[in-house]
């Protein structure tokens, strides 16, 4: 299957790239570079933060360029792709292993065109979104990075299957799928909506995780923000669709989720999204979060594939008290017993949760998704987030639960809190446990 997929990808790339090369003159940017009039900083800029640091946080640079246990921005974080593994580079100003020797023009080219000192970058570095950034914003991010303490950290060598290990081949991918185009404000939209679009599409590069990919691993524009799976976690639909997206959320819920990681009655950020909130979104100004909300209201609804409809009032939850289940189902007896012993104390049977808002389960897409993808990840690995100095933590059960145990709890939770029939089995849990996450 892997070989057939590789052959199919190469065939499609060859055909599309031929047409892409012919159209390159039309695709390449022409004329003077437009500068968004609102690019830069909000009026309510957080105190004690430079413009460059603010924009670096908005772009979430540190999340990808920091290895587990490593120095911030020093790189080394692995990205497991369907055809191998690549590693994030060192963004500290070290002359030998970082960006210290890069000129301003070289840095801008790497960020917006995906061409670095060693050739073409792989689009795990979201230059396909950063291309929209103004040159000035890229340069002030560079200015901030140059103030960091240099860290001598050699980036591990990529381990990719042939022919993906040939960087020059990315020129063909770029010709087929990448248009280097700066952000252009919509004259028919408000400045707030335009600001939100710039934050979401350029700096925040939301589409890179929340948009399904085509056979060439490029974003499918027709399904923009319609949701997909990233390294074993669900990046859910964030379009204005009222059934599958966030169109049914209130502004307060959407704002709370983006800014603080929790939307009352809806969801709490977990896994990679919790990192986005912790390292990036919570650092934005309130006006910029409001701008993101305003923009997300304007995103065209899309359904994509494998989307999740949320039941916000499941019968079992409505019949339950905090400490007593009102929806016993013999089919899920094993899962219920495990939930009772290890989970109910924090999450409670009525879905409200205790001690912290993050323990609430009612309305969560994770407990309404029949695939149980995100739920299995949380059960195995736990999740944590620090927001406004307060650390929220749920332990994982990978060591204490068997694969069958995890599947049993997941299916019980899906039945009780989502009124849906879970499809989780021990094989799926083993795949997630081993870190494969169905990527190969």
TrEMBL record:
Keywords attached to this Swiss-Prot or TrEMBL record, sorted alphabetically, are: Cell membrane, Heme, Iron, Membrane, Metal-binding, Repeat, Signal
Q: Which residues bind heme c 3?
A: 343, 346-347
How, per the record, is the cofactor bound?
Answer: Binds 3 heme c groups covalently per subunit.
Q: Which cofactor does it need?
A: heme c
- Kindly list the GO molecular function terms attached to this UniProt entry: electron transfer activity; heme binding; iron ion binding; oxidoreductase activity, acting on CH-OH group of donors
Residues annotated as binding heme c 1 are 61, 64-65
Q: Quote the protein name from its UniProt record.
A: Alcohol dehydrogenase
| Native source organism of the sequence | Pseudodonghicola xiamenensis
Show the taxonomic lineage. Bacteria, Pseudomonadati, Pseudomonadota, Alphaproteobacteria, Rhodobacterales
């Amino acid at each position: 299957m892997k070989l057939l997929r590789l052959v199919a990808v190469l065939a499609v790339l060859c055909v599309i790239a031929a047409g892409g090369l012919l159209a390159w003159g039309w695709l390449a940017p022409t004329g003077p570079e437009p500068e968004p009039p609102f690019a830069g900083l909000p009026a309510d800029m957080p105190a004690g933060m430079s413009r460059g640091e603010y924009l670096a946080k908005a772009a979430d640079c540190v999340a990808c360029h920091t290895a587990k246990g490593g120095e911030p921005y020093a790189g080394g974080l692995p990205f497991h792709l369907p055809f191998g593994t690549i590693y994030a580079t060192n963004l500290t100003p070290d002359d030998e292993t970082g960006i210290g020797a890069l000129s301003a023009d070289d840095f801008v080219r790497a960020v917006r065109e995906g061409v670095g000192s060693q050739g073409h970058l792989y689009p795990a570095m979201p230059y396909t979104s950063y291309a929209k950034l103004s040159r000035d914003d890229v340069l002030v991010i560079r200015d901030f990075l140059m103030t960091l303490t240099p860290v001598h950290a050699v980036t591990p060598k990529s381990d990719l299957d042939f022919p993906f290990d040939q960087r020059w081949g990315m020129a063909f991918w770029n010709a087929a799928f990448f248009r280097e185009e700066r952000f252009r404000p919509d004259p028919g939209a408000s400045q707030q909506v335009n600001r939100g679009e710039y934050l979401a599409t350029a700096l925040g590069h939301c589409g890179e995780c929340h948009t399904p990919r085509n056979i060439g691993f490029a974003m499918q524009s027709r399904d923009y923000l319609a949701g997909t799976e990233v390294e074993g976690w669900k990046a859910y639909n964030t379009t204005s669709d009222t059934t599958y997206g966030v169109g049914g959320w209130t502004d307060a819920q959407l704002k709370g989720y983006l800014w603080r990681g929790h939307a009352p009655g809806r969801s709490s950020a977990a896994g990679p999204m919790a990192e986005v909130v912790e390292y990036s979104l919570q650092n934005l100004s309130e006006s910029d979060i409001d701008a993101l909300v305003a923009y997300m209201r304007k995103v065209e609804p899309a359904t994509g594939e494998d989307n999740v409809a949320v039941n916000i009032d499941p019968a079992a939850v409505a019949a339950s008290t905090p400490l007593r289940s009102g929806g016993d189902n013999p089919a899920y007896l094993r899962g219920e017993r495990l939930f009772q012993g290890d989970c109910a104390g924090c999450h409670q049977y009525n879905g409200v949760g205790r001690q912290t808002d993050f323990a609430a389960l009612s309305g969560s897409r994770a407990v309404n998704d029949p695939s149980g993808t995100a739920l299995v990840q949380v059960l195995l690995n736990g999740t944590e987030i620090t927001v406004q100095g307060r650390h929220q933590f749920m332990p994982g059960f990978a060591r204490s639960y068997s694969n069958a145990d995890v599947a049993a709890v997941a299916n019980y939770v899906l039945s009780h809190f989502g009124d849906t029939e879970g499809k989780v089995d021990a094989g799926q849990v083993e795949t997630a446990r081993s870190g494969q996450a169905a990527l190969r």
